[in-house]
Amino acid sequence: MVDTNDRDGGRKSLGKQGEDLAVAFMEQKGYTVVARNYRCRPGEIDIIARKKKLLCFIEVKTRRTGRFGPPQEAVTPAKQYKIGRAAQDFLQRHRLENWPARFDVIAVDFSSGEGIIDCIENAFELTLG
Amino acid sequence: MEFADRLRESATPELFLQEQGYTFIAGVDEAGRGPLAGPVIAAAVILPPGWKCTDIRDSKQLSPGKRQELFSLIQGKALAWSWAYCSEKEIDRINILQSSLLAMKRAVELLGREPDYTIIDGPHRMPSPIRHTAIVDGDAKSLPIAAASIMAKVVRDSIMQKYHVLYPHYGFHANKGYGTREHILALEMHGSCPIHRRTFKRVP
User: Fold this and answer.
1) Residue B96: its chain A contacts at CB < 8 A?
2) Which member of B96, B178, B187 has the closest CB to residue A117?
3) Which residue from B34, A27, B174 is spatially nearest to A19, judged by alpha carbons?
4) How many domains does chain A have?
5) Which of A33, B116, B142, B186 holds its CA 20 to 30 A away from the CA of B57?
């Protein structure tokens, strides 16, 4: 059967591969993944993970080539703001406002064929306006 | 606007500094904030004032061969250069961000001559009293920071290649300590080795 979403699907599957790899990576680091693709009105968070009483909100950036610069630089201030608002939504919904939280960017670079994971802990601070 | 703000917003920070009367400008950057294993390396470099090289840009976008070539070029041209590290053990003790900043501070202190001004990559300042400014996207905007970035990466890659001989299970020669599917599988099969950062181990 012809996949009419092929072009879009191809791109999505790379993003999905990157996210799967990032999940395996966080689990190896001893974190428990509590949510994937958390969607709410203010925005979306790719992965939410915890270790003991520390929550990590993770944005995964996947790239096929390194030509457009390091993927973590693609998280613009506007995007950081959205992630921050979505994190706040998650924390309030689950009554976790007092939990320490961190914002990480996991960059997965597929330019060499295999995915190479670069995890930037505390990539940015919570920006709430 | 304050001096540091004008410097941060300048499209070419080292030219701005030269216009302000600073001659010897050190660029500083680190490599190895994101991997599972190995040290974080920082490099500092003072280039001859006015020297240009369009090939020098973000180290992550260059091939390993090109990085090595530029490394030799920078080594030859630099008025001073140095590198320093923070070990996995220090990273475990004071966290990765503080370790990268400490490695950068050490690299500057090891420079053979004192810079008039120091610019470093990133949003965070070093825990150091020397006159310096942190510039976001500094490796893209500034030649000395881009040069330091190349040097840090080349030094770190060669250290990880040596670690591969000591700890051959994890593919450090290829992944340089960064997470890959093979690296994660090797951790599951063999557990961690002495250069894995404890914060990345399953059992802390």
Assistant:
1) 121
2) B178
3) A27
4) 1
5) B116
Considering the domain boundaries, does residue A13 fall inside one? yes
Q: ipTM value, please give it.
A: 0.70
Judged against a pLDDT cut of 60, whether residue A12 lies above it is answered with: no
Domain of B143, CATH number, reads 3.30.420.10
- Best CA proximity match to B29, nearest among B127, B86, B101, B109: B101
How many domains, in total, are found in chain B?
1
Which domain covers residue A102, as residue numbers? 6-120
pLDDT tens digits for range B143-202: 999 999 999 999 999 999 999 999 999 999 999 999 999 999 999 899 999 999 986 555
B127 burial level (CB within 10 Å; 0-12, 13-18, 19+) = exposed
- Best of B153, B185, B200 to substitute, by most chain A Cβ atoms within 10 angstroms, is B200
User: What ranges make up the beta strands (E) of chain A?
Assistant: 32-40, 43-51, 54-63, 101-109, 116-120
